[in-house]
From TrEMBL:
Protein name per UniProt: 3-methylmercaptopropionyl-CoA dehydrogenase
Keywords on record: FAD, Flavoprotein, Oxidoreductase
Reactions accelerated catalytically: 3-(methylsulfanyl)propanoyl-CoA + oxidized [electron-transfer flavoprotein] + H(+) = 3-(methylsulfanyl)acryloyl-CoA + reduced [electron-transfer flavoprotein]
Tree of life domain: Bacteria
Family in the record: Belongs to the acyl-CoA dehydrogenase family.
Taxonomic lineage: Bacteria, Pseudomonadati, Pseudomonadota, Gammaproteobacteria, Pseudomonadales
EC number, as in UniProt: 1.3.99.41
Cofactor requirements of the protein: FAD
Domain (Acetyl-CoA dehydrogenase-like C-terminal): residue spans on this chain: 467-592
Length: 601
């Protein structure tokens, strides 16, 4: 398995040179402590931890998996010890409020560290990763007492958190969930039901696990309007904040999965477990979206992570593997054959992975800036604009980045040939681990409906305009820039077409609402490709400026420009197929009778 190397040079390029994070931190209240020196020190130390401590456990977790017993779940060898180091290093508290024991640094810095953690060992990273959403939910909706009891322990990393939504009979459709919560005389609730697919639901890495659970009150209305949110800890806290008696919540079994074997995916049984209401009764779904949006950006990060790992493994192998001669003559005549990196098709796959990894990093870090503004800005208009931008970008980031991340992981296998199918190289694990990312926190189809139906059409295109205005201003500003002539005109045309397509789909949907579902995935993927076209054009701008100024690191900036050109020439044309498909209408999907699907058997 190739050694993981944190992509610090590119992380710094995106943060410092493309997105101006230093000025961003100085402009946002409470972020001034995130000086360049501090940020670099954190990134360097985070990279060391990821490269030296958790990356070597990645294959261990895949091979060993987690072990269930009536006493609890045991994580793979080394996971518990690595988590102890993680907590001792103060990493869980990095981007959380000082009043709850956090370090008060910006969320976007935490996301940069999370990127490296996810690339080094996605299964391990899910244990502290799920806690992040629990912390955000408690911060936004918990009472001061709940925050004092639970949030402080979660911030320190002593306890971890989960999100308990899905039940055996319902996945995305939470309106039909059955878990119930009975009010008790002391103000608590008895929570009863079964939840499935609960990541990090049971393990031996922390002293306590805080489950954030959706359930129904006895008098709750039907559907999503009758769902409430509860804290259900594995161990009930004592008066002094310690770990008390065991609650009536247990892991019934572990799921046998395609990938992410090192993370415990649990069936959780709540047998009259003591729970505590978070937020207002019957408003649990509203509160849960705080958790969900955190998780969706985290899942977008997974798409980036698997693209990066596919690329790192692919480039290492392509430089070493000897196979055939170049079509234009030997490139390594002293060797028995040329390294496969000389072959155009291998380069196609490598550049595809590179374009997706680096382009998606730019999109994710752009979204992370919006998170900082929403959380910390004192300018209400600025916060409102950032929140709208984040709402628009989240389904694109979650679904597009995971789809192309899975594609990139597959290219990693392909470059290795038959060796890619063999476990020792790590590429087949990368594919298996990445596949879930297109499913959880809402499948690609669900995210596409959210984007096109709720975010774009229900706002009459206003959500889309927020981003297309950014692109339009960029194109206007760079119109006469000779170094960007290959990018600006195509980007401006796509930006214009984006609005026109939205109008066409919207008009068709007025006649037949099935048109929204029929067009939605193609619309989302089109949107993702156009978003990346903007970020690649902007990265090309920075690279061209650096080269013109003789700033040094010439090879790095030339590679940026070459990758941008590859993206525009080889990947961006995929938008044409998505346009044709989304405008073809719903009839080619809906006209076939249900019974005719199985004809021929």
């Amino acid at each position: 398995m190739p050694d993981y190397k944190a992509p610090l040079r590119d992380i710094r390029f995106v943060r410092d040179e493309l997105l101006g994070y230093d000025a961003h931190y100085q402009s946002i209240p409470g972020c001034q402590d995130a000086t360049p020196d501090m940020v670099n020190a954190i990134l360097e130390e985070g990279a060391k931890f990821c490269e030296q401590v958790i990356a070597p456990l990645n294959r261990v977790g895949d091979q060993e998996g987690c072990t269930w017993s009536p006493e609890g779940v045991k994580t793979p060898t080394g996971f518990k010890e690595a988590y102890k180091q993680f907590v001792e290093g103060g990493w869980p508290s990095l981007a959380h409020d000082v009043e709850h024991g956090g370090q008060g640094l910006p969320e976007s810095l935490g996301i940069a560290v999370s990127e490296m953690v996810g690339q080094a060992n996605w299964s391990w990273g899910m244990y502290p990763g799920l806690s992040h959403g629990a912390m955000n939910t408690l911060h936004a909706h918990g009472t001061p007492e709940q925050q004092s009891t639970y949030l402080t322990k979660l911030v320190s990393g002593e306890w971890t958190g989960t999100m308990c939504l899905t039940e055996p009979h319902c996945g995305t459709d939470l309106g039909i969930l059955r878990t119930k919560a009975e009010p008790q005389a002391d103000g608590s609730y008895q929570v009863t039901g079964t939840k499935i697919f609960i990541s990090a639901g049971e393990h031996d890495m922390a002293d306590n696990i805080v489950h954030i659970v959706l359930a129904r009150l006895p008098d709750a209305p039907q559907g999503t309007k009758g769902i409430s949110l509860f804290i259900v800890p594995k161990f009930l806290p004592t008066a002094d904040g310690g770990v008390g008696e065991r609650n009536a919540v247990s892991c019934g079994s572990l799921e046998h999965k395609m990938g992410i074997h090192g993370n415990a995916t649990c069936v959780m049984n709540f047998d009259g477990a003591t729970g505590f209401l978070i937020g207002p009764p019957n408003k649990g779904l509203n509160c849960m979206f705080t958790f969900m949006n955190t998780a969706r950006l985290g899942t977008a990060l997974q798409g980036l992570a698997h693209a990066e790992i596919g690329f790192q493994g692919g480039i290492a192998y392509a430089r070493e593997r000897l196979q055939m001669r170049s079509l234009t003559g030997p490139k390594a005549p002293e060797k028995a054959a040329d390294p496969i990196i000389v072959h155009p098709d291998v380069r196609r796959m490598l550049l595809t992975m590179k374009a997706f990894a680096e382009g998606n990093r730019a999109m994710l870090y752009y979204a992370a800036k919006q998170v900082d503004i929403v959380q910390r800005s004192e300018d209400e208009e600025q916060k409102k604009a950032a929140d709208a931008m984040l709402a628009f970008l989240t389904p694109i980031a979650k679904a597009f980045m995971t789809e192309v991340g899975f594609e990139a992981a597959n290219h990693g296998v392909q470059i290795y040939g038959g060796h890619g199918f063999i476990a020792e190289h790590g590429m087949e694990q990368n594919v298996r681990d990445s596949r879930i990312s297109c499913l959880y926190e809402g499948t690609t189809g669900v995210q596409a409906l959210d984007l096109l139906g709720r975010k774009v059409l229900m706002t009459q295109g206003e959500a889309l305009k927020g981003f297309t205005k950014v692109v339009h201003k960029f194109c206007q500003a760079q119109e006469g820039n000779e170094s960007l002539k290959d990018f600006v005109a195509p980007l401006a045309q796509l930006n214009k077409e984006w609005g026109e397509l939205t109008m066409k789909v919207g008009m068709a949907a007025m006649k037949d609402r099935e048109e929204v579902g029929a067009a939605s995935v193609d619309y989302l993927m089109y949107s993702g490709y156009v978003c990346l076209a903007y970020f690649w054009a902007d990265m090309a701008r920075v690279a061209a400026e650096k080269l013109a100024a003789g700033a040094g690191d010439e090879a790095f900036y030339k590679a940026k420009l070459q990758t941008a050109r590859f993206y525009y020439a080889r990947i961006l044309p995929r938008t044409r197929a998505h346009v044709a498909s989304m405008l073809s209408g719903a009839s080619n999907l809906m006209d076939m009778a249900e019974e005719d699907f199985a004809l021929g058997y």
